[in-house]
């Protein structure tokens, strides 16, 4: 990373563990990155005592933005939008909107974060809806970007087309993949397969020279390096990943059950369980590295609600990376370019 | 099972291995079930020599229905429908349609089987589209029925409603679950979540007293006994299961890779791999026990294309069970009843 000074706003109160996780991660980030300033949004009386361990120089790169409210993890997005105007989540987004922060990170309520981000930051020109994107592991230890993971459950072909463009930019800028291979998630690889929306999107993409569109992939291909970016609507993306998560839990339960049989099965479980947990946690998108909300006029990274300090630190780094690569500007430029190119 | 005489037609030529798998399974079924007659549709010159090991009494319960054509595993459904009128798959379906067989089983091309079944058998009154249904394992070693697994990728709320009714009948009749709990697959459990089609279906189901509708479940709940029947459209159902399959392969690859490290990791892999393969094969719906095509005026069971003899035998048993429980009649009665009940 370069050393241009960056300012990131954090929702200190968000997540299942709130300041217990977000504050230690913040301190680690401040110590690791001398070019980073953090704006800590949350209850000053909770935050202030935790900053004592910082040196004077470090302390100068931390600012507390005191807020009285916080958004509950189970709060309805509509309620959060209406009643939590003074919350740490809302304040963090406003700092980005006002240009006081380059990006923001929250481990809070995903639905509320989506609604508030959309409301406060607005979408980029040419983009109708933001999307939730994350990278997943593949069999050859590469990354594949999957979007949308649940921001939008009713997508038309224009929205999916925009998602394809945004996903390509994210893969190119954040992972450095040149001309990323973009695929649409479908029930078969043949052209005639799929529902009407997917077919219409395929038509749009195949007419767009600026996108390296490679066609359809099936659910099992997500993890096989068949594509760098896999595009689907938020309904399918969410259910696909949650199904994987559910089956993962079933597998872990079975391994535990079998482990009690004898010494060999105990050895098996001792080695297999951490391995399985590691893989499954990487598929749980926000547990691994934070999913990003893209398509907005600002950078918003979502860390897992149940994130530990490591994961929240990773999400801060993800936000820094997106600032340095100017992802929103690149998305804006790309969507303008492809719309111009289109016949 | 009772001992009323049953006649099942089989697509001997279908599947990746064709007669190599379907014939041994047929012979086993004939030996195991004295009340079973099999109509073997396929190339007589291939089938006939394999029947020599049967006793005279057994041989009397086997009839060869000679066909010249077979449907290719990669053949387009439209092509199969138009050009394969004399195929083993088509003949098998006609035998059911003409009342000469009580049910049929194929391991052939799923898309072609769907198209031909719909064309030859037609749907039951009150049912617009057939669905592909299968049972999956759950954490507490019970079964959950998931539909649609890919018969229909464009579903409206009426179709999903009919699927819910059909799924309930299947769970009740085939697995003996009284008043099965029916849920809609969604991105959240709250009433406000979901796309428009799911919300409209929820409304229809909540107004139908004859169905034990319990609300929404998420992808991870498929495997947790949260419901007995999980309803979704064929696009989502197919992608959810294929994603699980893809991740399963990734997990197995990782276990294999790690296994080479030392003696303990070798022990781990030796025990973990068969366990993982067993679980994943049960989630691959047709690999486990055959998926059923329901909603038709006849019983069609789909065995996995890559099925081994055990799996094909299991699919024959599934067909026998559906005949004995008169699943199509029960679906017809149930859909009539719920449509009458609806306000």
Number of strands of chain A: 11
As a whole number of angstroms, the C-alpha radius of gyration of chain A is 21 Å
Ends distance of chain A: 38 Å
Note the overall shape of chain A: globular
**Helix segment tally of chain A:** 13
The domain tally of chain A reads: 2
CATH level-1 class of the largest domain in chain A: Alpha Beta
Task: Report on the biggest sheet of chain A.
Answer: 11 strands, mixed
The helical percent of chain A reads: 40-55%
Beta fraction of the residues of chain A? Answer: 15-25%
CATH architecture classification name of the largest domain in chain A = 3-Layer(aba) Sandwich
Low-pLDDT parts of chain A are none
Briefly note the structural class of the backbone of chain A. Answer: alpha/beta
At a glance:
Chains A, B: It holds the Pfam family FA_synthesis. The structure is a homodimer of 343-residue chains. In chain A, 48% of the residues lie in helices and 16% in strands.
């Amino acid at each position: 990373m370069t050393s241009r000074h960056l300012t990131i706003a954090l929702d200190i109160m968000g997540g299942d563990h709130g300041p217990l996780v977000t504050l230690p991660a913040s301190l680690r980030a401040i110590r690791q990155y001398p070019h980073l300033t953090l704006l800590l949004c949350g209850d000053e009386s909770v935050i202030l005592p935790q900053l004592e361990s910082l040196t004077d120089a470090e302390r100068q790169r931390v600012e507390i933005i005191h807020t009285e409210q916080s958004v509950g993890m189970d709060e309805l997005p509509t309620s959060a939008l209406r009643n939590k105007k003074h919350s740490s989540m809302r304040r963090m987004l406003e700092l980005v909107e006002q240009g006081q922060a380059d990006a923001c990170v929250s481990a809070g309520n995903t639905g509320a974060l989506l609604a508030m981000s959309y409301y406060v930051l607005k979408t980029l020109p040419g983009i109708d809806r933001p999307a939730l994107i994350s990278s997943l592991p593949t069999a050859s230890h590469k990354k594949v970007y999957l979007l949308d993971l649940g921001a939008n459950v009713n997508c038309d072909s224009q929205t999916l087309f925009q998602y394809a463009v945004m996903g390509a930019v994210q893969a190119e800028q954040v992972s450095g993949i040149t001309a990323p291979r973009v695929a649409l998630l479908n029930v078969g690889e043949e052209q005639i397969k799929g529902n009407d929306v997917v077919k219409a999107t395929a038509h749009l993409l195949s007419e767009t020279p600026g996108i390296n569109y490679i066609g359809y992939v099936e659910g099992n291909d997500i993890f096989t390096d068949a594509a760098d970016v896999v595009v689907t609507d938020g309904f399918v993306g969410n259910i696909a990943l949650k199904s994987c998560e559910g089956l993962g839990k079933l597998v872990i339960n079975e391994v535990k059950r079998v482990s009690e049989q004898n010494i060999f099965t105990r050895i098996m479980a001792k080695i297999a369980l951490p391995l399985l947990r590691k893989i499954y946690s990487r598929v749980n998108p926000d547990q691994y590295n934070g999913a990003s909300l893209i398509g907005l006029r600002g950078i918003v990274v979502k860390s897992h609600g149940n994130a530990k300090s490591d994961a929240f630190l990773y999400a801060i780094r993800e936000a820094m990376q997106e600032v340095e690569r100017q992802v929103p500007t690149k998305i804006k430029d790309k969507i303008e370019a492809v719309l111009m190119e289109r016949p």
